[in-house]
């Protein structure tokens, strides 16, 4: 899997902690020493360290050497929620789905900013119903920039994983994603697609996926039946991955 260089370095540091080469409580080498070790610019090392600090593996004041706070979680955890299919497979479930409709639209200001494209550019919008072990559990509304959308048009309608198909067929890797979760209720279209009553609670999931260089690949609004998915995370004095957003900020973060 292709990842940004700083992500590769972060994972190598995690591995060194997992295998005991670096111990909890031990200080890392200086940024300059790490840059020399990994043969990269100091700024690349700085990004890797920032990532490790944000997840709570490392701690320390800005400008000071970082200290190992805890052993990182298993590597698979970071993979789980890049896409619905990856999350389902990581939990031993069978993902599926089918396309209800898709078509080309003008991006507009909001989607253009989220996808880093011109507001007048075309985006492909796809409406899917997603399945878990054969049961309808989620409605997915996804927008793709033009170049990627032209490939997505060729994805089989019943493909379990669009991102998996794109990686296998075209080498396009969905390396990471940003997420916002909130509560909503089931409207008329979602109720019909999921075969449930209107007004039923749904978990709303805004997702922006990106490649290894950080470029947006898609934006999606996913609406899950509320009994299907819950979200858990940990935070503390040295790491706080939770960002509280207003309703307006959630629309495209």
From TrEMBL:
The record's GO molecular-function terms, alphabetically, read:
DNA binding; DNA-binding transcription factor activity
List, in alphabetical order, the GO biological process terms annotated in this UniProt record.
negative regulation of DNA-templated transcription
Is-annotated flag, keyword Signal? no
HTH gntR-type domain location: 3-72
Assigned keywords, A-Z: DNA-binding, Transcription, Transcription regulation
Keyword Transcription regulation attributed: yes
PANTHER family assigned to the protein according to its UniProt record, in alphabetical order: MANNOSYL-D-GLYCERATE TRANSPORT/METABOLISM SYSTEM REPRESSOR MNGR-RELATED (PTHR44846), MANNOSYL-D-GLYCERATE TRANSPORT_METABOLISM SYSTEM REPRESSOR MNGR-RELATED (PTHR44846:SF1)
- What is the protein's given name? GntR family transcriptional regulator
